[in-house]
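Subject: Sanity check before I submit

Could someone independently write out the structure tokens for this chain? I want to compare against mine line by line before I put it in a report. The sequence has 360 residues.
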Amino acid sequence: MKQETTKPGVHGRGALENPAGRFEKLATIEERDDDFHDPEDESGKRLPTTVFRDASRSVISTNDSPDIGMEASVNPYRGCEHGCIYCYARPTHEYFGLSAGLDFETKIFAKTDAPELLRAKLASKSWEPKVITFSGVTDCYQPIERKMKITRGCMQVLAAFRNPAVVITKNYLVTRDIDIFKEMAAVQAIAVNLSITTLDPKLARAMEPRASRPALRLRAVEELAKAGIPVSVMVAPIVPGLTEHEIPAILEAVANAGARTAHYTVMSLPYGVKDLFQTWIAEHYPDRAKKVLNRIREIRGGKLNDPRFGSRMKGEGVHADQVAQIFAHYKKRYGLDRRYTALSTAAFRCGGNDGQGELF
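---
Independent answer below. Compare away.
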């Protein structure tokens, strides 16, 4: 059946444009070629994903930002096929001479050596066991992970060493690795966070085109919880004027699915993301564009981005306070304010499990 849509752009992608990176002196203009158009798809031409091998020789990054709750992180991929229009990681592609727009979604750098590099690091004498976050920047369970299995390889290494990890994802694919998570959960070494921004499938498709639809993310919460895996939900980001009214419904839904707790952030639009989002909101929701942008400015000191520690995650002002109060109220109402057992490094095994068998 033909999918009805009136939105132009590129099928299955979030950004509507591919502007030059802020470090580029020359801008590339791509002309429209009708030969690439699918006559059954009015949303525009399809672009394939190109995967490049990332030859990084280290895999664990550290963080000292006071308002980010992670000390160490691993990102198996640079760029993300999910194509979330608001993604704060988009500008990182500009350091490669690429665009924060469609390049970020279609040109993915894969750290194919990540499992081996992680194993070497955890086996080194210098490693002090600590919680490692996956998807601190881009989603470790994005679509190409289904084929490449780099994240799964990393999880097998972590299970062998019993080093704790936190996963943040928008993809139902995370349930594929429940077998590994069960082993890690037995020693308090895993926690999974599903990111759910909306329950509206139409909005999700436009805003997060290749991420799992909301119903599948809720199913992932349910399956993880039933398997005994500690699972929480990130309502991130809340889009003022567009998704904030969904806070009660989202929290009720995730509580019913078995989530232990929930957290949130409010939208902020750094660097080129602000231009991409403004183009997107004007195209997809022209009747609400002005309201949404004004609300973001209201909580960001008159701008679309406020990078200051302490305010960048949730904003400031009357409207930001209202969002905080609503979230806290419904979080308590649906029993999502309970404390749960923290992850532990007590079971860490130096050298890993020599009898672990297949790693990759």
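---
OP: Matches mine. For the report I'm noting this point. DSSP finds eleven helices and ten strands in the chain.
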